[in-house]
Design brief:
The complex is a heterodimer. Chain A is mainly α. Chain A has a single domain, classed as Cytochrome c oxidase-like, subunit I domain (Cytochrome C Oxidase, Chain A, Up-down Bundle), CATH 1.20.210.10. Chain A is built from 16 helices and no strands. In chain B, 82% of the residues lie in helices and 0% in strands. Chain B is built from 8 helices and no strands. Chain B has helices at 9-13, 18-49, 51-60, 63-88, 92-122, 130-134, 137-172, 182-207. The radius of gyration of chain B is 20 Å and the shape is elongated. The two termini of chain B are 38 Å apart. Classes of the chains: A mainly alpha, B mainly alpha. At the A-B interface, helix 7, helix 8 and helix 9 of A face helix 2 and helix 7 of B.
C-alpha cells in the first residue's frame, strides 16, 4: 500500500490533518492527543504546586513571623495539598500515559468511549477553573487543609464551598477515566490478547480503574455534603445538633485512602514495564504482580480508618484497621521483591528510565516501611499528625508516584515526541532530584519523631537546624526539576530523531512508527508475549 | 462481569459496540449507588444512635404521598422497559407514548414531592431554620437526612426525566431505532436506578416507624 504524508498510519498524531489549530486539540477524541492535553495541564499544575511548596519551605526555614502571615500560610498549604492531590497526582499517570498507551498496549486504536474521554478532560479543566475561582473570589482561598475536616470547614469564611465543588467535578472526571479504561480492557483487546498476556501497566490501570469507579463517588457525596452543610445548614456533622464529625472523617477517608492506591498503582505499573526491558529478562512473577495490583485495590479499600487512630473511635476498630493496614503491605512487598528478582542476573543497562525506576523502588520502600510505623496503632499515637506523616507520604507520593511519572516520561518520551533527550543531563537531573528529595524529606522523619506537629506556622528553636536543612533540600530538588524539564523540553524541540524501538521493548507500542501515528494499527495486531525479548533488540 | 463476545461486524464498521456501552453504563450505575451509599451510611449510623427520634420522624411523614410516589415510580419503570420492547418491534409511536407516560410519572412524582416538602416548610421544617435547630438532636438529624436524601434523589428524577426527553427527541429523529437502541436501553437503566434508590428510601423514611 502506498503511503502519503496524509496517511493517518504515517502522519504523527500531533501533526495537523486538514485544519488543525486549537480546536483540533481541545475537542479531539484521539486518546493520544487527550493524553498530551492532560500531561500538559498536569505538569502546569505540578509547577504551580511546587512553587507553593517552595514558599512553605522558605517560610519554615526560620521560626517566627516571617515572609507569610499565618492565614496566608494556612491557605498555601491547603492549596498545595488540594492541587497536588486532586489535580496532579490522581490524574497523573492514568490520564496522561494511561490514555496514550493503554489502548496501544492491548492492540486497540482508541479507548471504548473516545468522546467521553474528551469530556473527562473538559471536566478536569472545569475543576481547575473552579479551583482558580475559589482562590481569587470571596473571602480568600480555603484554609482547611486538603482534608476539609469538619467542623472547621463548615464554619470558615474562606471560599470552601466552591473548592469542594471543584473537587466533586475533578472526581467525576476521574470516575469517567476509570470507567473508560475498564470497559476498554474488557472490550477492545486484540484477538489473542488474553488476560495473562496483558502488559502489567494495563493490569495496574485496570485495578486503578476499579478503585476510581468504586471509591470516588464517596468523595463526591462527601464534597456535596460539605457544600450543603455550608449552604443549607443541614447540621449532619454538627455536634450541637446531634451530628457526629467523626462520620465525616470516615466518609472522607473511605475515598481518600483508596485514592492513594489510585496514585501509586499506575506508577507501579510503569515500573513493572521498565524493569524487565532494561534488564533484558522476562518479568519475574508476572501472575503475582498482576494479582497483587488487584489485591492492593481490594485490601486498600478496607484500611481507611487508620487515619483516625487518635480520633477517639473504638479500640476494636483501631485494632482491626491496624491489622488490615499490615495486610496491604504484603502485596506491595510482593511487587518490590518481583522487581528485584527480575533484575537479578539480568543484563542491566542503566538508562534514565531505569534510574528513575530504581529511585522509585528506594523511595517507595522507605515510604512504605515508615507507613507501617503509622499503621501500627501503638506507634501511631506518638507520630500522628507530626512531620513523620508528612515525610511518609511525600516519600510515597513524590518519591513513588512522582519518580514513577518521571520514569514514564523518560521511557515513553521518544515514542511520543519522536525525539530523544540528552542522557547525561537526564542522569544528572535524576541524582539531583533524588538527593534533593532526601535532604528535603528525611529530616522531617526525625523532626516528627521529636514531636514537630504538621501544618504549624511556627516552631520551637530546637527544630530550627533540621527545618533549615529541609529547606535547603527543597532548593536542591527545585534545581533538579528545572534541569529535568529543561532537558526534556530541549529533547522534544532539538533532540536527535528517535528510532522505532530505542529501548528494545516487546509491548505493542514499540512495533509502531516513531513518533506515534494518528492511526495506530491496521486491523488487529497479533498479541505479543509482552516480556519475551528473544529477537527484540534496542535499535537506537 | 462475564466476558462478552466481540461486537458484530456491522457494529464495528460503525464504531459501535453496544456491549461496551452497556458495560460502561453499569459501571456508572455502580458509582450512583455508591454516591447514595455515603448517605445510607450516615442514615445507618444516626438511626442506630437515635432510634426514638427516627421513629417519631417517620411517623410525621405523609405515608399516603410516599406510597403514591412509590407506585408512580414503579409504574414508570415498567413503562420504560415496555418502551424498549416496543422500539425493538418497530412500534415507534407506541414507544414514544410509553416514554411520554414515564416522563409524566416523573413530573407527578416531583409534584407530590413538592407538596410534601411544602407542607414540611409550612411547619417550619426548613433546613437551617431556627425551628430545625431547636428540634431534639436526633430529629434535627432525621430531617436533615430526609432533605438530603430525598433532595438528591429528586435531582436524579429530574436528570433521568430530562435524559428520557432527549432520548424521545433522538427517536423522533430516527437516531435511535429498533436496530440501534443502546442509548434508550442505557437511559432505561438509569431510570431503573432512580426507581431502585427510591424503593430503599421509602421504607427507611416512611415505613420503619
Amino acid at each position: 500500500m502506498e503511503h502519503t504524508a496524509q496517511d493517518p498510519h504515517e502522519r504523527p498524531f500531533f501533526a495537523p490533518s486538514g485544519k488543525g489549530g486549537l480546536a483540533s486539540w481541545i475537542f479531539s477524541t484521539d486518546h493520544k492527543r487527550i493524553g498530551l492535553l492532560y500531561l500538559g495541564l498536569i505538569m502546569l499544575m505540578f509547577s504551580v504546586a511546587v512553587v507553593l511548596g517552595l514558599l512553605l519551605r522558605l517560610k519554615l526555614m526560620t521560626p517566627g513571623n516571617t515572609l507569610l502571615t499565618p492565614q496566608q500560610y494556612n491557605a498555601i498549604f491547603t492549596l498545595h495539598g488540594v492541587i497536588m492531590v486532586f489535580m496532579v497526582v490522581i490524574p497523573s499517570i492514568p490520564a496522561s500515559f494511561g490514555n496514550i498507551f493503554l489502548p496501544l498496549h492491548i492492540g486497540a486504536n482508541d479507548v471504548s468511549f473516545p468522546r467521553l474521554n474528551n469530556f473527562s478532560w473538559w471536566l478536569y479543566v472545569t475543576g481547575l477553573v473552579l479551583a482558580l475561582v475559589s482562590i481569587f473570589t470571596g473571602n480568600g482561598p480555603p484554609d482547611t487543609g486538603w482534608t476539609f475536616y469538619v467542623p472547621f470547614s463548615e464554619h470558615t469564611t474562606t471560599n470552601v464551598s466552591i473548592a469542594v465543588i471543584a473537587v466533586f467535578v475533578l472526581g467525576f472526571s476521574s470516575i469517567l477515566t476509570g470507567l473508560n479504561f475498564i470497559t476498554t480492557v474488557h472490550r477492545l483487546r486484540t484477538p489473542g490478547m488474553t488476560w495473562r498476556k496483558l502488559p502489567l501497566f494495563v493490569w495496574s490501570l485496570y485495578a486503578t480503574g476499579w478503585i476510581q469507579v468504586l471509591a470516588t463517588p464517596i468523595l463526591g457525596i462527601t464534597a456535596l455534603l460539605i457544600f450543603s452543610e455550608r449552604v443549607l445548614h443541614l447540621g449532619l456533622f454538627d455536634p450541637g445538633r446531634g451530628g457526629d464529625p467523626l462520620l465525616y472523617q470516615h466518609l472522607f477517608w473511605i475515598y481518600s485512602h483508596p485514592a492513594v492506591y489510585i496514585m501509586i498503582l499506575p506508577a507501579m505499573g510503569v515500573i513493572s514495564e521498565i524493569i524487565p526491558v532494561f534488564s533484558r529478562k522476562p518479568v519475574f512473577g508476572y501472575n503475582m504482580i498482576a494479582f497483587s495490583s488487584l489485591a492492593i485495590a481490594f485490601a486498600g479499600s478496607l484500611v481507611w480508618a487508620h487515619h483516625m487512630f487518635t480520633s477517639g473511635m473504638s479500640d476494636n476498630a483501631v485494632l482491626l484497621f491496624s491489622f488490615l493496614t499490615f495486610v496491604v503491605a504484603i502485596p506491595s512487598a510482593i511487587k518490590v521483591f518481583n522487581w528485584l528478582s527480575t533484575m537479578y542476573k539480568g543484563s542491566i543497562s542503566l538508562d534514565p528510565p531505569l534510574l528513575f525506576s530504581l529511585g522509585f523502588i528506594l523511595m517507595f520502600s522507605i515510604g512504605g516501611l515508615t507507613g507501617l510505623v503509622l499503621g501500627s496503632a501503638g506507634t501511631d499515637i506518638h507520630v500522628h499528625d507530626t512531620y513523620f506523616v508528612v515525610a511518609h507520604f511525600h516519600y510515597v507520593i513524590f518519591g513513588g508516584t512522582g519518580l514513577g511519572m518521571f520514569a514514564a516520561m523518560h521511557y515513553w518520551f521518544p515514542k511520543v515526541f519522536g525525539r530523544m533527550y540528552d542522557h547525561t543531563r537526564a542522569f544528572w537531573s535524576f541524582w539531583i532530584i533524588l538527593l534533593g528529595m532526601n535532604v528535603l524529606y528525611f529530616p522531617m522523619f526525625v523532626m516528627g519523631l521529636q514531636g514537630m506537629p504538621r501544618r504549624y506556622y511556627d516552631y520551637l528553636p530546637q527544630y530550627a537546624p533540621l527545618q533549615m536543612v529541609s529547606t535547603w533540600g527543597s532548593w536542591i530538588l527545585a534545581v533538579g526539576l528545572i534541569l529535568m524539564f529543561h532537558n526534556l523540553y530541549r529533547g522534544c524541540r532539538y533532540g536527535p530523531v528517535a528510532t522505532k524501538n530505542p529501548w528494545g521493548g516487546a509491548t505493542l507500542e514499540w512495533t509502531l512508527p516513531t513518533p506515534l501515528p494518528a492511526e495506530a494499527f491496521y486491523g488487529d495486531p497479533v498479541a505479543p508475549e509482552p516480556y519475551d525479548y528473544k529477537g527484540v533488540n534496542p535499535d537506537g | 462481569m462475564a466476558e462478552a463476545h466481540a461486537a458484530p461486524a456491522a457494529q464495528l464498521a460503525a464504531h459501535r459496540d453496544d456491549q461496551a456501552s452497556k458495560m460502561g453504563m453499569w459501571l456508572f450505575l455502580f458509582t450512583e449507588i455508591l454516591l447514595f451509599g455515603g448517605l445510607f451510611l450516615l442514615y445507618a449510623s444516626y438511626r442506630a444512635k437515635y432510634p426514638q427520634a427516627f421513629h417519631a420522624g417517620g411517623q410525621a411523614l405523609d405515608l399516603v404521598l410516599g406510597a403514591t410516589n412509590t407506585v408512580i415510580l414503579i409504574t414508570s419503570s415498567l413503562t420504560v422497559a415496555l418502551s424498549i420492547t416496543a422500539l425493538r418491534r418497530g412500534q415507534t409511536v407506541r414507544c414514544l407514548w410509553l416514554l411520554a407516560f414515564t416522563v409524566a410519572c416523573a413530573a407527578t412524582f416531583m409534584l407530590n414531592k413538592g407538596i410534601e416538602w411544602g407542607a414540611k416548610f409550612h411547619h417550619g421544617l426548613i433546613p437551617g431554620s431556627e425551628h430545625m435547630a431547636r428540634l431534639p438532636q436526633g430529629q434535627s438529624i432525621f430531617y436533615g437526612l430526609y432533605f438530603a436524601m430525598t433532595g438528591l434523589h429528586g435531582l436524579h428524577v429530574v436528570i433521568g426525566a430530562s435524559v428520557l426527553l432527549w432520548v424521545m427527541l433522538l427517536i423522533r429523529r430516527s437516531k435511535i431505532t429498533g436496530d440501534d437502541y443502546a442509548v434508550l436501553e442505557n437511559a432505561g437503566l438509569y431510570w431503573h436506578i432512580v426507581d431502585m434508590v427510591w424503593i430503599y428510601l421509602f421504607p427507611l423514611f416512611y415505613l420503619i416507624a
